[in-house]
Amino acid sequence: MKTAFITGASSGIGRATAVALAGAGFQLVITGRRRERLDALAQQLAPTPVHMLTFDVRDRAAVEAAVAELPDTFAHVDVLINNAGNAHGLASIQEGDPADWDAMMDGNVKGLLYVSRAVLPRMGEGGFIVNLGSIAGHEAYANGNVYCASKAAVSMLTRTMRIDLLPKGIRVAEVAPGMVETEFSEVRFKGDEERAANVYKGVQALQAADIADIIQFMVTRPPHVQLAEVIVFPAAQAAASTVKRAG
Ligand code: 8X3
Question: Which domains are seen in the chain, by residue range?
Answer without folding.
Answer: 3-243 (3.40.50.720)
